[in-house]
Fold this sequence. Notes:
4-stranded antiparallel sheet, Alpha-Beta Plaits, 4 strands, 39% helix
Amino acid sequence: MAGTFSQIYIHYVFAVERRENLLEKPWREEVFKYIAGIIKGKKQKPIIVNGVSDHVHVFVGLKPVVSISDLVRDIKNNSSNFINERNFLKSKFSWQEGYGAFSHSHSQLDTVYQYIANQENHHRKKTFKEEYIEFLQKFEIEYQEKYLFEWLD
């Protein structure tokens, strides 16, 4: 019987609802580890999960048994439940609708990993809006700004 072989790397980007700075440092790492656990639980490979107070980058080795949209839906649903069940915030937490999904080749793994690992430093120089629009342009994705995330900056 023939097997299925694939090499698919997806870089997800999604934001906190209303782009509020709610992912606080004292528990942010715990949420990122939980997100990695969600990915593992779906039999996918979490490469790195990192972000800042208002958005997250998730880099995944994706097997074709799950769709890109199903995985991000499960990540967002389960992680928002995790945050709310632990009462990390006084108000209800949720992710903003939508996400970015960008594919990378195996040769780009280290570059993408380092980029995501250095989010804190990166955002001292560039806003999330600038970063996200650069991704859309780099990957030649057509967009209308009114359909992007809610921007605070």
